[in-house]
Amino acid sequence: MCSDKKLAGSRVAEGANTSRMPDPFSLFLSLLFGVIGLVALRHGKQEGNIPCVLLGLGLMVFPYFVDGWAWILGIGSLLTAAVWRFWDQ
What we know:
Elements: H1 2-16, H2 24-47, H3 50-61, H4 69-86
Helix pairs in contact: 2-3, 2-4, 3-4
């Protein structure tokens, strides 16, 4: 009887653990776009360039809400291109 409860409890524990580690490439891309975002944020604050500040914040935050390296690469590339566009304004 005790072994039945233990078995049932282990099934629940296994099913409850749904978190998984991101792959290394996603972590690398998140770090890369975070650093680009930090540079854009600092540049925007120094120059009074509000679009660069907002895009820099976006680059630093969006990887927390996106799952998968392809999405991170696509969205990060678009935001980086927008930073490039607004850099000297």
